[in-house]
User: Which sequence fits this backbone?
């Protein structure tokens, strides 16, 4: 069964640094999403991406965040200048008809 | 705006027994979908089951079934014959079919512990 993969599994960075989280979606899925989960809290929507452009974004997804699909396969989330409160698990998800399949997540720790 | 409420922060069940995890939702949309995900301690989000708002029958997937009561706006997850490996956090989520991005809105989750 095809899977969503994410790299790295864990990223530690210093406050103010840029990070890029990578996702390899399931091929032929057209909708892509990023979610985050702060430790011990619920999963929160960040952004959805369809047809090479953002289709919806949450209030969390401010100018510090950006998404790209640079080579037609990988899907990236960039945080330009990380803050302590960006520490969380970041999930990439793909949608196929009704189901949304999540990747294993990247745990981002900002020190 | 959509909202998911899971009122049970923690639930305990004996191995081999059935357990129901509660989920209520609030939406003004006519077309929407309801989901349940399992999150074990390793952190990944595992899709379990989906119910569309226009589906007339309750969804079932193996030992998982979704007790969908549209008038009450509830979508409870029933796990039959619990196993030790079912111990995990369970999240209910919904998606509107009427917005372009079709984001998922999640509840706070229920921590299920299966006792031997």
Assistant:
């Amino acid at each position: 069964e095809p899977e969503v993969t994410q790299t790295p599994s864990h990223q530690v960075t210093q406050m103010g640094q840029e990070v890029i989280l990578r996702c390899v979606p399931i091929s032929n899925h057209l909708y892509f999403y990023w979610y985050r989960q702060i430790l011990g809290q619920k999963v929160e929507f960040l952004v959805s991406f369809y047809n090479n452009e953002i289709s919806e974004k949450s209030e969390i997804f401010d100018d510090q965040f950006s998404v790209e699909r640079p080579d037609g396969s990988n899907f990236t989330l960039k945080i330009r200048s990380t803050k302590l409160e960006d520490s969380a698990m970041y999930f990439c998800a793909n949608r196929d008809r009704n189901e949304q399949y999540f990747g294993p997540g990247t745990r981002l720790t900002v020190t | 705006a959509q909202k998911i409420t899971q009122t049970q922060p923690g639930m305990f069940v004996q191995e081999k027994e059935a357990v129901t995890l509660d989920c209520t939702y609030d939406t003004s949309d006519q077309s929407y979908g309801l989901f349940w995900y399992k999150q074990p301690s390793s952190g990944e989000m595992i899709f379990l089951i989906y119910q569309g708002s226009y589906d007339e029958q309750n969804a079932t997937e193996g030992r998982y079934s979704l007790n969908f009561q549209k008038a009450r706006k509830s979508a409870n997850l029933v796990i039959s014959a619990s196993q030790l490996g079912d111990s995990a956090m369970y999240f209910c989520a919904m998606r509107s079919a009427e917005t372009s991005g079709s984001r998922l809105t999640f509840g706070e989750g229920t921590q299920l512990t299966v006792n031997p």
In short: The longest strand of chain A covers residues 88-96. Chain A touches chain B at residues 31, 33, 35, 41-45, 47-48, 50, 55-58, 89, 91, 93, 95, 98-105, 107 (CB under 8 Å). Residues 14 and 44 of chain A are 23 Å apart (CA to CA).
